[in-house]
Amino acid sequence: MENQTIEALYPISFRQKDAVTLGQHLKNRNSVILMGMKRVGISNFLRFFLNHKEIVRKYIADGNSHLFIPIDLNDLVEREVFPFWILTLKRIYDACEKSALDNSTKKYIERLFLDCMQSKDTFLTIEGVKKSLAKITQEGVLSTIFLIRFDRLREVVTLELFGNIQGVKDATNRKVSFVFTSFRGLPDLAPEVFTKSSVALFARNMYVRPAEKEDTKIIFDTYKARYKLIFPLALETALFEVVDGYVQYLQLALISFHESGKTFKNKQEIFDFLCTDERIMLQSEELWESLNNVEQGILLKAENLKEISDEERKSASYLWDSGFLVDSKEKTMVFSSLFSYYLKQRKIAREIAANVELSKKEHLLFTFLKSRIGEICEREEIIQAVWQEVEELGISDWAIDRLIARLRVKLKSQKAKFEIQTIKTRGYKMIEG
């Protein structure tokens, strides 16, 4: 069956440095924590790595057969331990069904999955995962499990869960590798579970930074063709300089251009247009909120061209490792002019957000919740109603929660008779008080 993933059509040179590093880790059967700033393009890179037919030959090249098993934890409706393990087993089964594994192996794994679904027993499901991967290994195939958006499990991560993940690797004589994706390292997500020493023994850290211009060009050409955009060649470089390799900025920019039908004469017009886009500003706010207080303070020092000490660099190394800050000969710079603009305008942005009038997205959210008053609105339904134009790019839990929080504040300020209730792990419900 032909792969329909657009990233599978990228040239094999896409993000070559990252592909070489990840491929070498998998060749050595290392587990990897793939991290970077939120929405920087990790998912885009992984769709390329998981689906391009030349990846194993080009970047792993160890003579073995490999099975990539992507588990997107955005698919978890309930962020609990049993749903995590049953989703893992289901995705193992799905990957096997599409593979060239022996039919007897496929049937064996199918039986394990169906038995676990029927029993709804966590212990049996974990054993099913171990037996499935052991069976695949016995066929001489090396499995890699990609736990995409592992940070979504931060509230249910325990020593037992970490121990069971390690146990899965041990069950295959350590021939299974894990790739965790997260905007932060595992010790930052759950320091009481993942100590730096235990994680260092289990997995290697790998940062994905904003894309280089040639890689941004590849992504741009793909979306330009998809949205049938007419964009002057002379302005492409200007756009790339504005978004500076940050994939979500680029994707949102192209959608905004498509919606507006606006033409631009120069870089300044592109910049001014994007600075007024609510989605761009919300994305910048999400980046800001992903940092701790120390990192925020040092980021502002860099923005204001103040000297940063060696001790501060050490305490906020994440800013440099992830690409938030870039050192030039003269100064330390914030990675993108759009994000730099947000830092300068944060006070104004907060005042605009506090305005009692609803923004476009807030109005869409209010209208949708009101149309379903008294009913639970799942997160996916909210995305379809409010972010339909960017649904395919993925919308973070943070973005949904922040928009809900803003709407709640404005409804209260307006003394409205409506209240929004949170339904844990599912979504929200509007009631009339």
Could you characterize what this model shows?
- This protein has 433 residues and is α/β, with parallel strands linked by helices.
- It is 55% helix and 12% strand.
- The chain has helices at 16-27, 42-51, 55-60, 81-97, 103-119, 122-138, 159-171, 186-189, 196-202, 213-226, 233-243, 247-260, 267-275, 278-289, 293-303, 310-315, 317-321, 337-344, 346-354, 360-371, 379-386, 397-413; strands at residues 31-35, 65-72, 141-148, 177-182, 203-207, 325-327, 332-334, 377-378, 418-423, 427-432.
- The strands form three sheets. It has a five-stranded parallel beta sheet with strand order 2-3-4-1-5, sandwiched between helices. Strands 8-10-9 form a three-stranded antiparallel beta sheet.
- Helix 20 (360-371) crosses helix 22 (397-413).
- The protein is globular.
- 35% of the residues are buried.
